[in-house]
Q: What sequence folds into this?
C-alpha cells in the first residue's frame, strides 16, 4: 500500500447520530463486562478449570455478552453478512511484512499470553492447533481506507475461541490490548481486547473456499470486518497480550488507532 488517500468523510446528521448510538451501545456493553468483572472478579472467572477445552466462566461471560447483544443491541454490533455467492477474490493489497521467504510448513505462531503475575512465557502454536478450534465461515465485506471494498468468504477460528481454549489471557482485565506482528516485524497491528474477542474476529486460514495464498496472508491472517483492512494483518508471526496500547503501523502514520467502520 503506497501513500493511501486519507479518508475525507462528509458525514450527514443521520450518520453522526447512528455512530453516536453505536458508540453508546458499545460503551454499555463495556460497562456490562466491567460490572460483571467487578461482581465476580474477572481473575476468578478466567482461572476456573476448563470444561471441554473451553474456560467455562469466560465462555459464560461471552454468552452473557451474547445475550446482552441479542436483547439490547440486536445485530447493531455485527458487520453485515452476505450470501456466499456474492464473494469475489479481493485484489492483493499491501505486502508489508510479506517480502521475506516463508516456509509455510515450518511456520509457527509465537504467543505471549498475560497472567495475573505478568506476561506469560512465549508459547508456540502450529496451524493444526488453530485448525483444531471450531471452524467458522463468514462472508463479509473487506473495506480498505483507500476507498474500495469487496465481499469475501472467509474461514478460520474465532480469536475468542483461541484465547479461551488455550488460556492466553487469564488476567484479561490486565491485558486490554493485543499486538499482532508479521514474522519479520515489518507490519504490526494493535487491537483492543473488545474487538479481538468480537465474534466476527477470525484467525483466518481460508479465503473463498481455498487455503490462503501467500499474497493474501498464508498461513494465517486476521479478519475483523468492523474495522478497515489495515487491521486485517496478513502472515501473523506473533501475538502478544499487553497492558499498554501497542504500536500500530498505520496509526504511527496518522490513521486512527481503532480504525473502526
Ligand atoms: N502483513 C500485511 N498485512 C496487511 C497489509 C500489509 O501491507 N501487510 N495491508 C492491509 C491492508 S491496507 C488491506 S486493505 C488488506 C488487504 O488484504 P488483501 O490483500 O487480502 O486484499 O490487508 C491488510 N493486511
Ligand atoms: Mo487497505
A:
Amino acid at each position: 500500500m503506497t501513500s493511501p488517500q486519507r479518508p475525507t468523510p462528509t458525514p450527514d446528521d443521520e450518520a453522526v447520530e447512528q455512530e453516536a448510538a453505536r458508540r453508546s451501545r458499545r460503551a454499555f456493553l463495556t460497562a456490562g463486562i466491567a460490572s460483571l468483572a467487578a461482581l465476580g472478579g474477572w481473575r476468578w472467572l478466567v482461572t476456573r478449570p476448563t470444561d471441554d477445552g473451553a474456560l467455562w466462566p469466560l465462555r459464560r461471560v461471552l454468552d452473557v455478552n451474547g445475550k446482552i447483544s441479542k436483547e439490547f443491541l440486536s445485530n447493531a454490533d455485527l458487520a453485515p453478512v452476505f450470501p456466499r455467492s456474492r464473494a469475489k477474490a479481493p485484489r492483493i493489497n499491501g505486502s508489508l511484512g510479506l517480502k521475506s521467504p516463508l516456509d509455510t510448513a515450518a511456520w509457527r505462531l509465537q504467543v505471549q499470553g498475560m497472567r495475573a503475575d505478568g506476561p506469560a512465557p512465549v508459547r508456540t502454536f502450529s496451524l493444526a492447533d488453530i485448525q483444531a478450534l471450531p471452524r467458522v465461515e463468514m462472508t463479509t465485506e473487506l473495506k480498505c481506507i483507500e476507498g474500495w471494498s469487496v465481499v469475501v468468504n472467509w474461514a478460520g477460528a474465532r480469536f475468542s475461541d483461541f484465547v479461551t481454549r488455550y488460556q492466553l489471557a487469564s488476567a484479561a482485565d490486565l491485558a486490554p490490548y493485543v499486538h499482532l506482528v508479521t514474522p519479520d516485524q515489518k507490519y504490526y497491528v494493535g487491537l483492543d481486547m473488545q474487538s479481538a474477542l468480537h465474534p466476527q474476529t477470525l484467525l483466518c486460514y481460508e479465503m473463498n473456499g481455498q487455503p490462503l495464498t501467500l499474497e493474501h496472508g498464508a498461513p494465517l491472517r486476521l479478519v475483523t470486518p468492523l474495522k478497515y483492512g489495515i487491521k486485517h494483518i496478513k502472515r501473523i508471526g506473533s501475538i502478544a497480550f499487553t497492558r499498554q496500547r501497542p504500536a500500530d503501523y498505520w496509526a504511527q502514520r496518522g490513521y486512527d488507532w481503532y480504525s473502526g467502520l
